[in-house]
Design goal:
Helix content is about 65%, strand content about 10%. By secondary structure, the chain is of the alpha/beta class. The protein folds into 3 domains: about 300 residues, ABC transporter transmembrane region fold (Up-down Bundle); about 170 residues, Rossmann fold (3-Layer(aba) Sandwich), CATH 3.40.50.300; about 70 residues, P-loop containing nucleotide triphosphate hydrolases (Rossmann fold, 3-Layer(aba) Sandwich). A hairpin with a 2-residue loop joins β4 and β5. α2 packs parallel to α6. The longest helix has about 55 residues.
Length: about 575
Amino acid sequence: MLGKILVRYLSKYRWLLVGVLVFQFASALASLYLPTLNKDLIDKGVAQGDTDYIWRTGLFMLFVSLGQIVASIIATYFAARAAMGAGRDIRADVFAKVSGFSEREVSQFGAGSLITRNTNDVQQVQMLAMMGATMFVTAPLLAIGGIIMAVITNASLSWLIAVSVPVMLIVALLIISRMVPLFRSMQKKIDNVNRIMREQLTGVRVVRAFVREDIEEERFRGANTDIMVVGRKIGSLFVLLFPMFMLILNVTVVAVIWFGGIEVNAGTVEVGTLFAFMQYIGQIMMGVIMSSFMAMMIPRAAVSAERVGEVLDAESTMTRPENGVTAFPTPGAVAFDGVEFTYPGAESPVLSGISFAAQPGETVAIVGSTGAGKTTLVSLIPRLFDVTGGGVFVGGTDVREADVESLWDSIGLVPQRPFLFTGTVASNLRYGREDATDEELWHALEIAQGRDFVEEMPDGLDSRIAQGGTNVSGGQRQRLAIARAIVHQPQILVFDDSFSALDLTTDARLRQALWRELPHVTKIVVAQRVSTVTDADRIVVLEGGTMVGVGTHEELLETSETYREIVESQLGVDA
């Protein structure tokens, strides 16, 4: 999977990578040439007392060194451009993929895990691309080229290379093999920390209301400690690896000086040659160390690439037809025909045998006890989930055969827990339609009974909204969400218990304004309060995921025991 992702996303930057190869090749050749120049400087210049030769060779070495530095800088720049661009493209594709997921896939992966995959995991792949591009040529050239040059320089001492290099590779293999499962565990534990952190931030009010700060702190501490333990194990392996490499390198250098000194003393090897051989030994070891560093990065990047690939390869249950219907025969009509829905892994359906219709401009209310399936039912209209049996029809077209954008464009959804984005009141309302004028925003707020409190805010439509709308009350958040749906100008408005935070007076005024100002819009209303639904054209009663009644308020009082019980239980509150 790692190779597949790197090839897929780096191929776009092939010319940058060609530049990396060219300049890294030049940098590596310069590095390999410098010890030879140093050998000549010592043997032909210093040993012979030739000052002119020392100056000429020294200046040439300086020129080669500057060229090596410039080539290395350019190669690193090209590698960074390619790696950062690939990382950006991967994040964009993961975001686009997740945006097309249904609620089923989001729940399957988990929000915290999806965030980790699009941040930390992509970063690991990006870092490998960056380091791999810069070391891909340098490491093998230094190692292989260094071995060749060392043998050419002094073949009699080459047996030291045949001993030290395999020892380094064995040490690297043993340590890296222990890192692979730790890296996999690390990514899962990062998922867990993100999940706990997200839960605590989202549910901070609940945590404080139940005085659970200590327990939540303990949960986070436990997850955080798990990461620390794994990170410490990985760190200890890193700490062990490089001292082992340096030990092998230093022992090899000492051996070179020892055995080389014997040859120098015997007159068979010149001092410059011995220095050059030691430099090549250092370059060989550096090449092996760089290769080992790459090998250490690959396991973690491979785990991360696998996790990213799982998201990119996941097939959404919300399939998009290639030639989906864009123009609906009967705009605004909604119909459920024998609808059944079962959550993945559930033993029994949460909805079964649901059949009813809402004609354009009608108001259909859905009531029932908690867990009856009301929210699940209305979630099928905009395809947050797809039915597992029967069909949902919007505008006379099965939603699974409709063009998704056209379907969503025809529906305005106000969810059970309205969410506002960081920005202003205006930017949140224009989330429904970007080209909406200020007059249209104020009109939508007036219908949603939100004009008064927005006018009282310091900057009106330009007043700031915190993430999630935490700087406004629950009722204000609901009214802003309703106004946003109205600005969208849909043919169908779906209210999923969207009046629950409103007092009875505001609730009544809002419903009257909706019916008066938007008579042509079909309204599907999920509600707990009977007073919210009494004037609906039709009321659907759910119990245990099945339809146990349908009709007007008066009809259901006579024919549906479940509805009558709901009304009687609220008489003291809403009647």
